[in-house]
Automatic annotation (TrEMBL):
The lineage of its organism: Bacteria, Bacillati, Actinomycetota, Actinomycetes, Kitasatosporales. GO terms for molecular function: gamma-glutamyl hercynylcysteine sulfoxide synthase activity; iron ion binding. InterPro entries: CTDL_fold, DinB-like, DinB/YfiT-like, EgtB, EgtB_Actinobacteria, Sulfatase_Mod_Factor_Kinase, SUMF_dom, SUMF_sf. It is an enzyme of class 1 (oxidoreductase). Residues 19-149 form the DinB-like domain. Gamma-L-glutamyl-L-cysteine binds at R89, A90, E91, R92, D419, R423. Gene3D superfamilies: dinb family like domain (1.20.120.450), paralog of FGE (formylglycine-generating enzyme) (3.90.1580.10). It comes from Streptomyces viridochromogenes. NCBIfam families: egtB_TIGR03440. This is Hercynine oxygenase. Residues 306-353 are annotated as: Disordered. Its EC number is 1.14.99.50. HAMAP family: EgtB. Residues 175-434 form the Sulfatase-modifying factor enzyme-like domain. Catalyzes the oxidative sulfurization of hercynine (N-alpha,N-alpha,N-alpha-trimethyl-L-histidine) into hercynyl-gamma-L-glutamyl-L-cysteine sulfoxide, a step in the biosynthesis pathway of ergothioneine.
Length: 439
């Protein structure tokens, strides 16, 4: 029989570890530059870094201290300032934001009270406290904003502020370039993952016809072939919306790339370097991914196809938490958590491959899918509609798998991300697929 006290201590330790890991990363991202860089808006697409810092603290206070613990608001006058739905990002620099020192103090004071609360919280009784969900939700929220702040660092002009070791070189991948995923039903989504968010629920059966999917994400070298073949100048490969978008904005290559003679260079966190041919392509929008797939005689996988490739275990006829099984991600499985500041070479992490032999489905780059962001059958918004429900519809495309900028707490085989098809500042790439009957 399971010891409830042991379970509570295990959950408490997990919550403490994930909250602490997130705060260490937040601190790094907001302490590696001077205050003027924190208060500046480096792109109209992004908030000032200092807004993210105080927003993280404000959300933590509202959900854990006020909602779970029932305490009085610490700074009720700032709630509206840090309401992400009340103020678009482009307007946030004009708000009366807490200055950096005050924002740090506020976030630290909230965290101190939360850690005291964690010591006494019973992980049962309400849906928010069951299995420590509210603490997991807040850890995921902070890590998602850490990824957003890392995007801001990539958009920021100026010298390099962040440093991390490069991934290990990967041996040349000698296996097949694509893998056959057999047709049939599989269980998509989850009803058992304790910290899964509402859009991942509930588990349900999907029938997916047989298809082939790329063994690895599409590389820079492969994408350069598309460019050199005139891919950006041939409307045959583009949807009407995509063609209009790249014409209007004079897009001819992934974001942050520029041609220097016969080679391509890119800017990455303040450093200009030659585009590495064996890395997954990064900073492409959905329109670009879709056009490349058409040019290659293929297509983007649907969201259900992607998840089946990532989770289906044919031998056990079951859906796993991750491509490699049910164990939490370890460094040998995937490139996650800002451990590196770039994707690993295509073919890396053989210990993280799926039973069918698909690699790098978790980490490295978010992967665009063909699917619109829609609710699963039986979806119920929880704990608030603004997390998922207000974004459902054809305006947003689904991304899967996470990137090098995603922490493991916010990345699972069921985790769903979404964005507009024009977005390129995000750490997005893709892989392609084809139906089993296609040549």
């Amino acid at each position: 029989m399971t010891d409830p006290a042991h379970d509570a201590e295990t959950l408490r330790e997990r919550a403490l570890t994930t909250l602490t890991t997130a705060r260490a990363r937040t601190t790094l991202l907001t302490s590696c530059v001077e205050d003027p860089d924190l208060t500046a808006q480096h792109s109209p697409l992004m908030s000032p870094l200092v807004w993210d810092l105080a927003h993280i603290g404000n959300q933590e206070e509202q959900w854990l201290l006020r909602t779970v613990a029932g305490r009085e608001a610490m700074r009720p006058e700032i709630d509206g300032i840090y309401d992400a739905f009340e103020h678009p990002r482009a307007e946030r620099p004009s708000l009366p934001l807490l200055p950096p020192t005050e924002a740090r103090h506020y976030a630290a004071e909230v965290r101190g009270r939360v850690l005291d609360l964690l010591e006494s919280t019973a992980f049962h009784g309400t849906r928010l406290t069951e299995a420590g969900f509210a603490f997991g939700m807040i850890a995921q929220h902070e890590q998602q904003h850490d990824e957003t702040m890392l995007i801001t660092h990539q958009l920021r002009k100026g010298p390099q502020a962040l440093h991390a070791p490069d991934p290990e070189p990967a041996p040349l991948l000698t296996g097949p370039s694509e893998v056959l995923v057999p047709g049939g039903p599989f269980t998509m989504g989850t009803s058992t993952e304790p910290w899964a968010l509402d859009n991942e629920r509930p588990a349900h059966v999907r029938e997916v016809p047989a298809f082939h999917i790329d063994t690895t994400p599409v590389t820079n070298a492969a994408y350069q072939a598309f460019i050199e073949d005139g891919g950006y100048d041939d409307d045959r490969w583009w949807t009407a919306g995509g063609w209009a978008h790249i014409r209007q904005h004079s897009i001819h290559a992934p974001l942050f790339w520029r041609r220097d003679g016969k080679q391509w260079l890119r800017r990455r966190f303040g450093v200009t370097e030659v585009v590495p041919p064996d890395e997954p392509v990064l900073h492409v929008c959905w329109y670009e991914a879709d056009a490349y797939a058409r040019w290659a005689g293929r297509r983007l996988p649907t969201e259900a196809e992607w998840e089946k490739a990532a989770r289906h275990d044919p031998a056990g006829d079951r859906s796993m938490r991750y491509p490699w099984g049910d164990a939490d991600p370890a460094p040998e499985h995937a490139n996650l958590g800002q451990r590196h500041l770039r994707p690993a070479p295509a073919g890396s992490y053989p210990e993280g491959e799926s039973p069918l032999g698909v690699r790098q489905l978790i980490g490295d780059v978010w992967e665009w899918t063909a699917s619109d962001f829609l609710p699963y059958p039986g979806f119920q918004a929880f704990p608030y509609k603004e997390y998922s429900e207000v974004f459902f519809g054809p305006e947003h495309k689904v991304l899967r798998g996470g990137s090098f900028a995603v922490d493991a707490v916010a990345c699972r085989g069921t985790f769903r991300n979404w964005d507009y098809p024009i977005r390129r500042q995000i750490f997005s790439g893709f892989r392609t697929a084809r139906s089993a009957g296609d040549v």
